[in-house]
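Researcher: Good morning. I'm working through a list of sequences from a screen, and I'd like to move beyond sequence-only analysis. For each chain I'm collecting a predicted structure so we can compare shapes side by side. This is the next one on the list. No need for commentary yet; just the structure.
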Amino acid sequence: MTRLTTNRGLIRVSTLGVPSLKTSQSGVKLNAMNDLHKLFAEALAQSGLDVTALDETDLSEVLQSKIIPECAASVLDELKQRAPDMLREHREMEEGFQARNFERWAQGFDLLEMLIVIAEETGGAINDADRPTAVEENNAQFEAVVTLHARAVLVVREILCLLKNGFADGALGRSARFTKWP
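Model: Good morning. Structure tokens for this chain:
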């Protein structure tokens, strides 16, 4: 086995000139990495280059100009082909998480949704009742309060959406909006 020295030491080249990845310290190789390695090895073999004769700079140039673009196109095609199954699987996992999350926090979500509905209906009723007078009097304070109320309801709806989808940290960050009104 001839060793090709790189700045990270990740590639070995067999006496036949076919590169292989070193096994990680844990001894585990991911299938995706194995597939990618095979793809690079095949592309290098098909290129007809003697990688043992190239220095690191030349090898890097060959990889960047020829091998990587070819491999990237191949990987993209494969990913597009696998995408429907992959996305279906991930959506099923996400839906399962959301169902379990809602089961666990249903009482809290219901209370927050109830508060949102109360706030929307109350704000709407006040707006409907007092808007004609506010317009007549050109009441900027009324307009400001109604606008802030609408924004607050929107922010709380966003927080609820984040919580239902498991993004508690995002919901906490979004709730900081209440301390930073314009």
